[in-house]
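We read letters as residues; the fold follows as tokens. A sample entry reads:
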Amino acid sequence: MLKGEVEETIRSFFNDDLIKFFEKEEIYHIECTGEALLLFKFLRLARTEEISRMLEYSEALLERIEPTVV
């Protein structure tokens, strides 16, 4: 589910590449304040292998959103 104040901005940010990324990857909960991202999978402390996977996921996500971040 997507929520935000300016629907047009949200729709332009979530391009086809980003949508396909989310469709094929594991499901994470992501929140953004406009200045920072919060990314998590479980409401508990993560194990080492979970942190490694989350870092890989974050790097792949950053590759897709970095050109759109101002």
Remarks:
- The mean pLDDT is 89.
